């Protein structure tokens, strides 16, 4: 096939150089919270978070420079499944599993409401700088499906 008919990607900088996952842009506030000064100088201020739980890269930039999960100041979800899913309020996978086992949504609903509140500090407490709601809902549904 003629290459003239094959669409090239618009930007490759948004994809993790290690695993190819689409990155999630993070701001300087998030990077300052998770990286040392030296690590921040190693990536540009317009870095991305790699959301793949299997990839060891946490942050990368358009020059394919990376910061690995083993090198950051604290464990982060989903890179480390034992880390809190909600960095702001400490909700863990075990908390969600308890809701599913007990047939309630107490912890899940509570964290979703808190994540929507002004008390949430997602930009500095979540490695991707975003609310944990999507991760919480995804893991809750996964647990429900695993019970069936």
Question: How does this model look, in words?
Answer:
There is one protein chain. The protein is built from 6 helices and 4 strands. It is α+β, with helices and mostly antiparallel strands and 148 residues long. It has a 4-stranded antiparallel beta sheet with strand order 1-2-3-4, with no helix packed on it. The protein starts with 23 loop residues before the first strand and ends with a helix. 32% of the residues are buried. About 3% of the residues have low confidence.
Concise summary:
The chain has 148 residues and is of the alpha+beta class. It has 6 helices and 4 strands; from the N terminus they run βααβββαααα.
Furnish the topology, listing elements before pairings:
Elements: E1 24-25, H1 28-34, H2 37-42, E2 48-49, E3 57-60, E4 66-68, H3 93-102, H4 106-116, H5 122-125, H6 133-147
Antiparallel strand pairs: 1-2, 2-3, 3-4
* Radius of gyration based on Cα positions: 17 Å
Strand content: 5-15%
Which descriptor suits the 3D outline? globular
Instruction: Note poorly predicted spans.
Output: 8-12
State the distance separating the first and last CA atoms.
46 Å
Structural class: alpha+beta
Number of strands: 4
- SSE ordering: EHHEEEHHHH
Strand order of the largest sheet: 1-2-3-4
Q: Please bin the fraction of helical residues.
A: 25-40%
Q: Total helix count?
A: 6
The pLDDT mean sits at 91
The largest β sheet comes out as: 4 strands, antiparallel
């Amino acid at each position: 096939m003629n290459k003239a008919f094959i669409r090239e990607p618009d930007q490759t900088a948004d994809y993790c150089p290690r695993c190819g996952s689409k990155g999630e842009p993070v701001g300087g506030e998030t990077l300052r919270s998770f990286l040392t000064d030296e690590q921040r100088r190693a990536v540009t201020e317009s870095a991305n978070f790699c959301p793949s739980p299997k990839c060891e890269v946490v942050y990368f930039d358009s020059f394919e420079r990376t910061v690995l999960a083993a090198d950051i100041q604290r464990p982060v979800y989903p890179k480390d499944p034992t880390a809190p899913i909600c960095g702001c309020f400490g909700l863990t996978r075990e908390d969600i599993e308890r809701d599913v086992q007990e047939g309630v949504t107490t912890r899940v609903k509570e964290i979703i409401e808190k994540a929507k509140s002004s008390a949430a500090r997602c930009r500095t407490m979540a490695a991707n700088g975003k609310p944990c709601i999507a991760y919480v809902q995804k893991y809750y549904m996964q647990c429900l499906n695993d019970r069936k």
